[in-house]
Amino acid sequence: MTKFCRFSAAALLAAAFWAHASASTDDVIAMARAYLGTEAALESVNSIHYTGTLTGEETIKDNTGKEVRRPFNGDIDIIFQKPYYQRVKLVSYKGTEITALDDYEAWRRLEDPADSTRWSLTLLSKDQIKRLRASTWENLAFFRGIEGLGGHVEDHGSTTIDGRSCEKLVFVHEPGIEFSRYFDAATGRLVLTLLESGDRIQEEGEIMVNGVRFPKILIHITKDSTTWKEYATVLTLDKITLNEIFPDSLFAVPMYTGQ
Fold first, then answer.
1. Which of 180, 187, 214, 252 has a 20 to 30 A CA-CA distance from 136?
2. Average pLDDT of the residues in 104-117
3. Which positions ≥6 away from 15 have C-beta within 8 Å?
């Protein structure tokens, strides 16, 4: 009887704790979604089409074979479509690079800058596909519903980022694929995103489209594993279009015609 009572007390305490954590998590997500737009506006989004520019630095080898950093820029076109379709097209001096997700298939195509009919194709690995599926969900779900995919949200409590009181939620798609998001405790605005790799993503400005708030600028900060210096890649969005309908062929693995 004594063991039963102790077990019951522990179970009740655990249930009370998880009920509180769940409510807190739901409250943070509700506030974050409300900052972005109404429930009707968010739920109506089936596809997002971004166009803009990508600037930053890249590592290349100079004439002596030494690795050096130099500025990089390109035009970028990004599409996310429910349930799991993604296409990123980057055009730069290197040519055209297209990375796409077609549900459970993903590929990357590199086109010669001088002749677009000359290209190479790589099929992406299972782990890369999982990551692309996770990023597609993150862009289209607006923080709600990861449990339906077999993932979960962890409530890591309050912390301070750049002088702001923030609530930290970790969106775990599966071990090794996590998005740690810090939301302003007063407004619900997303202040910072950390990836499991240690990369940081910050947002600036805003663009309102059909009642939904998007960032104008996304800054992706990485750290060089050798020098430990930090480098920023900046995505500046020029246009955002919602709910275009894209054909399946846009995401499907390209077929070589021999022409």
1. 187
2. 91
3. none
Domain range for 106 is 2-250
Determine contact, residues 135/81, Cβ cutoff 8 Å. no
- The total number of structural domains that make up the chain: 1
pLDDT tens for 203-218 read: 999 999 999 999 999 9
64-104 tens-digit pLDDT: 878 778 899 999 999 999 999 999 999 999 899 999 999 99
Whether 232 maps to a domain, the answer reads: yes
Instruction: Please indicate, yes or no, if residue 256 is contained in any of the structural domains.
Output: no
Cis peptide before 83 (omega within 30 of 0): yes
d(CA 159, CA 184): 10
Residue environment code for 67-98, b if the CB has 16+ CB neighbours within 10 A, otherwise e: eeeeebebebebbbbeebbbbbbbbeeebbbb
Residue 25 CA to residue 167 CA, distance in Å, equals 9
List own/partner pairs for 177-182 with CB under 8 A and 24 or more apart: 177/130, 177/131, 177/134, 179/134, 179/138, 180/156, 181/32, 181/143
258 lies in some domain? no
Q: What is the CATH number of the domain that holds 239?
A: 2.50.20.10
